[in-house]
C-alpha cells in the first residue's frame, strides 16, 4: 500500500484530544471499557457480562462528557452460531449510538482502560457502519489519568445524534472466505501464542487454529505503557509477517481472534501501519463450534 495515500491516523494522543475538546468541533467521547469473561455454563458460547466491569469503572471516573457504551449489548449481536460477538444489528446499533450523541458530521473518539482492545472494537464497528471520523485514544483512560487530566463521575445526557449506519464500509470474511485466505493468502491469528498452538483454550470448545493461519499475537503491537508502538515499528512487524508481500500480489490480508474483539485491535494496528485488513467476525468462537471445520495445532501453520 502507498503510505502517502493512507488516511489520517486512527489514533489520537491525550494532548491532541485536549486541544480538540476545546475547539469549535469537539468530538463525541465514548467510553468502551470492558473485560473478557468466561462463557456462562450451558450458554453455547455466550459470554458473561464483560461490560459490567467497565460500567463500574466508568461510574468511578471517566473523561468529562464521555458516554458509556456496552460492548456486549451495542457493539455485538447476541452470541450464537455466529460466535460470541457477531456483528450488531444495524438498526439497534444506530439507535444506541444516536442516544449517545453520535452524528455523522461530528468526530468520535473512543477509549477504554488501555491497551485499546475494546476501544478498537468500537472503532472497527463504527467505521464498518460508515462513520467517517472515528479515532482511538492511544493509551486510553490510563494515559488520560497519567497526564493529570480532569475526570468526572457524572453521566451526561447528550443531545440525540443523527448517525444512521450504512454497514459494509470495512471488509469482512465469513468462515469459508477465512479458510480460503489461510490457504492462499495471509490470515493473521491475533490470539496469544499458546491458544494458537492449542496448548490452552479457556473459552471455546476446541483448541488450535485455522489451518494455514499465521500466529500474530495482537498485544505485540503495544509498547509497555499500553500505547501502540510507533507506526514505523508496526510497519516492520507486519512486513516480517508477510503483509506487504500479500498486498503486492493483490491478495487481501485477514485477521481473526477468539470472537472478533482483539482481531479489531490487530486491524487497528494494521491501519496505523497503513494497511487495510478484512476481519473475520465469527473468529475462533464460530469456527471451533463447527465440528466440520478442521483444526491445526502446534507452531506451524498447518
Topology:
Blueprint: E1 11-12, H1 14-21, E2 28-31, H2 50-60, E3 67-68, H3 71-74, H4 90-99, E4 108-111, H5 117-128, E5 134-137, H6 140-146, H7 175-184, E6 186-189, H8 193-197, E7 214-215, H9 231-240, H10 243-248, E8 253-256, H11 262-272, E9 278-279, H12 283-287
Parallel strand pairs: 1-5, 2-3, 2-4, 4-5, 6-7, 6-8, 8-9
Helix pairs in contact: 5-11
User: What name does CATH use for the topology of the largest domain?
Assistant: Oxidized Rhodanese, domain 1
* Name given to the CATH homologous superfamily of the largest domain: Rhodanese-like domain
* Low-pLDDT stretches: 1-6, 40-48
Query: What's the oligomerization state?
Result: single chain
- The SSE string, one letter per element, is EHEHEHHEHEHHEHEHHEHEH
Structural class determined from secondary elements: alpha/beta
Fraction of residues in β-strands:
5-15%
At CATH level 2, the architecture of the largest domain is 3-Layer(aba) Sandwich
Sheet having the most strands:
5 strands, parallel
Which geometry do the CA atoms define?
Answer: globular
Number of structural domains: 2
CA(first)-CA(last) distance: 28 Å
CATH class of the largest domain reads: Alpha Beta
> Using only CA atoms, what is the Rg?
18 Å
Mean residue pLDDT? 93
What is the percent of helical residues?
Answer: 25-40%
Q: In DSSP terms, counting alpha (H) and pi (I) runs of 4 or more, how many helices?
A: 12
Number of E strands = 9
Order of strands in the sheet with most strands: 1-5-4-2-3
Amino acid at each position: 500500500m502507498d503510505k502517502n495515500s493512507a488516511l489520517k491516523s486512527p489514533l489520537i494522543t491525550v494532548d491532541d484530544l485536549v486541544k480538540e475538546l476545546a475547539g469549535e468541533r469537539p468530538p463525541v467521547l465514548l467510553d468502551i471499557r470492558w473485560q473478557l469473561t468466561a462463557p456462562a455454563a450451558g450458554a453455547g458460547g455466550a459470554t458473561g457480562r464483560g461490560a459490567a466491569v467497565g460500567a463500574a469503572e466508568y461510574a468511578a471516573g471517566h473523561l468529562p462528557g464521555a458516554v458509556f457504551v456496552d460492548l456486549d449489548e451495542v457493539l455485538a449481536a447476541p452470541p450464537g452460531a455466529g460466535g460470541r460477538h457477531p456483528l450488531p444489528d444495524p438498526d439497534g446499533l444506530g439507535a444506541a449510538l444516536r442516544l449517545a450523541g453520535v452524528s455523522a458530521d461530528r468526530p468520535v473518539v473512543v477509549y477504554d482502560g488501555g491497551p485499546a482492545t475494546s476501544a478498537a472494537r468500537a472503532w472497527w464497528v463504527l467505521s464498518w457502519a460508515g462513520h467517517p471520523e472515528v479515532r482511538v485514544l492511544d493509551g486510553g483512560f490510563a494515559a488520560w489519568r497519567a497526564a493529570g487530566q480532569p475526570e468526572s463521575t457524572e453521566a451526561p445526557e447528550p443531545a440525540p445524534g443523527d448517525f444512521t449506519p450504512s454497514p459494509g464500509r470495512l471488509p469482512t470474511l465469513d468462515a469459508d472466505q477465512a479458510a480460503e485466505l489461510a490457504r492462499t493468502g495471509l490470515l493473521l491469528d491475533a490470539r496469544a501464542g499458546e491458544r494458537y498452538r492449542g496448548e490452552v483454550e479457556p473459552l471455546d470448545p476446541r483448541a488450535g487454529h485455522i489451518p494455514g493461519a499465521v500466529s500474530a499475537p495482537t498485544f505485540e503491537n503495544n509498547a509497555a505503557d499500553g500505547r501502540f508502538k510507533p507506526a514505523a515499528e508496526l510497519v516492520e512487524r507486519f512486513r516480517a509477517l508477510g503483509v506487504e508481500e500479500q498486498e503486492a500480489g493483490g491478495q487481501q490480508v485477514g485477521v481473526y481472534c477468539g470472537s472478533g474483539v482483539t482481531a479489531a485491535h490487530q486491524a487497528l494496528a494494521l491501519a496505523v501501519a497503513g494497511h487495510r485488513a478484512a476481519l473475520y467476525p465469527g473468529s475462533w468462537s464460530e469456527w471451533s463450534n463447527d465440528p466440520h471445520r478442521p483444526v491445526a495445532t502446534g507452531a506451524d501453520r498447518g
